Amino acid sequence: MTPGSLGSGEVLFALLAVTIPLIAIGTLIWRQADRTRGLQASIDAAADKAASSSEGVKRIEANVSAMRDELHRDYVRHDSLRETEARMTKRMDDVEHTVRGTATQIIAALSGSDHVPARRRRPQP
Q1: What whole-number distance in Å separates Cα of residue 20 and Cα of residue 28?
Q2: For each successive 10 residues of the chain (125 residues), what is the average pLDDT?
């Protein structure tokens, strides 16, 4: 068959045989590209959410670290206060003991007796 011997129906059929598959392939490619764009938009949205979540996590970690440091400082202060309180209690007991002993010695000296009563101390907590 030569091109000149083809009839109009045969030419039309040949054109349709080539055009219809090309249209079908083009439609499939267009749909696939549309799906790809939709998936890319979903991926971009998920990446943005992940980035904002990551920033939130970093802020939370920074806040937790600051709270941990403040709590540590509070414990150190509390321990220091306990130690100071213990030292002050001991010193006050020593002063009380000295004052009582001195008063007893003065009373004994004024009354003329050599007897000094036994010293008492408060029990330590």
Answers
A1: 12
A2: 66 87 92 93 92 90 95 92 93 91 87 61 57
